[in-house]
Amino acid sequence: MVTSLHISQIMIAIFLIGIILMQVRGEGSGLFGAAESNMRVRRGLDLLLFRITIGLIVLFLGVALLTARLS
Length: 71
What we know:
Layout: H1 2-23, H2 45-70
Helix pairs in contact: 1-2
């Protein structure tokens, strides 16, 4: 049971990294401090990626807490 939770947590982490990297925009990379500081509204694919990111974070934290509880 714990092994399957660890594997699912790794898979969720990989998906989460991919989704976050797909959201980076602007001149250069937002990961290194060159992000734009414009206010903008999320629409379409941006909004979908944002909601998927939040869902994956909640799922990741839930699996992490469950794994800690069972260990």
